[in-house]
Amino acid sequence: MSEPRRRPVRGPRSRTGLRQWLRPGIGIKRWLGVVLLGELAFAVAGAFVLKQWYRDVTLDGPFQGVAYVATLQFLPYWARAIPLVVVGAALLFLGLVRLIRAFLAPFGERSEPLVEVIYQKRYLARGPRIVALGGGTGQSALLRGIKEYTSNITAIVAVADDGGSSGKLRAELGIAPMGDIRNCIAALADAEPLMTRLLQYRFPDDVAPTAGLADAGTAGLPEGRAAGLAGHSFGNLYIAAMSAIEGDFEAGVRQSNRVLAVRGQVVPAAAYPLTLHAQLVDGTQIDGQSRIARACGIERVWVTPADMRANREAMEAIENADMIVFGPGSLYTSLLPSLLLTDIRDALLASPALRVYVCNVATQVGETEGYGLAAHVAALERHVGPGLLDVVLANDNLHARTAPGDESVPVSLDWTPPADGRAIALVRRDVVDAENAHRHDSEKLGAAVLEVFEAHGRTHPPVTFARTA
Prior knowledge:
Blueprint lengths: L17 H4 L7 H28 L7 H7 L10 H24 L9 H12 L4 E5 L1 H11 L6 E5 L6 H10 L5 H10 L3 H8 L34 H13 L2 H11 L5 E4 L6 E6 L4 E3 L1 H4 L5 E7 L7 H8 L3 E4 L4 H9 L2 H9 L3 E5 L14 H12 L6 E5 L29 E5 L2 E2 L2 E5 L1 H15 L13
Parallel strand pairs: 1-2, 1-7, 2-3, 7-8, 8-9, 9-10
Antiparallel strand pairs: 4-5, 4-6, 11-12
């Protein structure tokens, strides 16, 4: 099995050196070689002219002495090239260094050298085309991990949320919820730490018009204006504003990807909000994602409108994907709402891409209480259809730190191959955050997903691959 591609480890550098510009992957050396070949052609032409001038014009003329020195006739024949090589190399090095400095000067101070940015973009552009479906914090953790290996990422995000700031904007403006979209944009942004702080900033519930929020830009607003921001995150308001400017929610999200320098793209599963419904084992029906998340004994879920068309960009991404990753995220309320759209479900079942399910590391009180690995997979295929999965990636570190009083437990690794004889590969890896048994570790998860792609991609024969603890 080949090792997954890794990003080079970068340490702090005080300046950008010529050696960095000449390393593999930048795309400089090939064109530098073309320039050198052009200069060599000029040099050879000049040598021909000089040789002819020396023979025909100055051999017995007044410039014989000058020509003698200019053509290094005073040196042995084999040594005449040495001073020219030394002078040429020195001039070439000096010229390149000065050229690079002149090129970088207009960009001023950067958090990292421009050569690093160019290298990353060219390196990541050659990565596999990965589609990630889901929502919530689990999808954000996945995106933070895989963006270190590829920039060909499409995050397809559910639009069924009806709680919190997203629910308020959905009710007031009639647009699709953008909370999970905001999280994914923050995760894929190049300036991630700062962008995450900005997009995730939430205005306090006790906003005062004249005090306490100077940093948020609300101080001095008329009575009642600032209070309308209470509970909203800045990222949600930004996407809502961009959607209003563009006149369309999908276009607003698309422009947000561009303006915020997202590595890849984040797209909503549909252009309009969906309503999630659930039927419990006792026959009770519950409506709304926020209520379903707290329910126990979920039998099945569905969305309305049932005939909602999927986002065109989402469909194109699925059709062109090398790998499709489901989860991690809340099984019924984050992952399934997107997969239940008819367009997306049919495209997933027909896709030749490698289809991987990343199971949650812990159960969720209510929604998946008591679920093991097999129950998660069974629920997923029961709703979408058999033949959906090629690989299941599960966490095998069941000893991560759990907060006192936490009722969730690690997802058990009970696994039974499908009864219909289909070959679903089980890959077990330590992908949990050692300090939080509820969360995936982004770095571990990204490496594990790319390892799965290297081992199980369509260029490899199908195998069953599992590593024990």
